[in-house]
């Protein structure tokens, strides 16, 4: 079953906001039974208060050393971000993950760092990784994504998807309340209708459509201001 993404423009989500109320407010007039609501993981994390000013973080010497081994364009390349990763996963686990990653490179195996350290670290957004004013913050991944999605579903009566999407077409599913294969939902999000800059569209309603040729599907960006 194909889906058409409808991106919803919202206000800037702030720490402490009730996500059930926010999602209900913006989807009530546009979502129908059978639709699925996709939320950006950054929106969830910010509402949970997981945005941290880097100047409030005092990196230990180990963080300064380890961040040199991170990809220079990655989210753990600054001392503050690596310090927060150490706090999230634990020092020994990050050290073990680093050793595994180094060994993996010798054999051409990628991705071992996050497999060992925990995939939650890959959802850390360093400075500039989200929209203003949170582009000045390090945004950690959301806590208890499955529970958050379940609670929002109870509040709005629709299945909920929490995702991390980038402009390269990568879609990571953190939580999904449905029982069917989320592959069609992932495909509908692959062109990143949520955006990674200042689009301010962290909610996407995935409109359920009858089976039609791919060429007949459109993906407009729409919504309403609060």
UniProtKB/TrEMBL annotation:
Annotated Coenzyme F420:L-glutamate ligase-like domain residues: 8-156
Keywords assigned by UniProt, alphabetized: Ligase
Alphabetical list of Gene3D superfamilies matching this protein: CofE-like
Keyword check for DNA damage: no
EC number: 6.3.2.31
Keyword Ligase: yes
Species of origin: Geochorda subterranea
GO MF annotation: an example: coenzyme F420-0:L-glutamate ligase activity
Tree of life domain: Bacteria
Protein name: Coenzyme F420-0:L-glutamate ligase
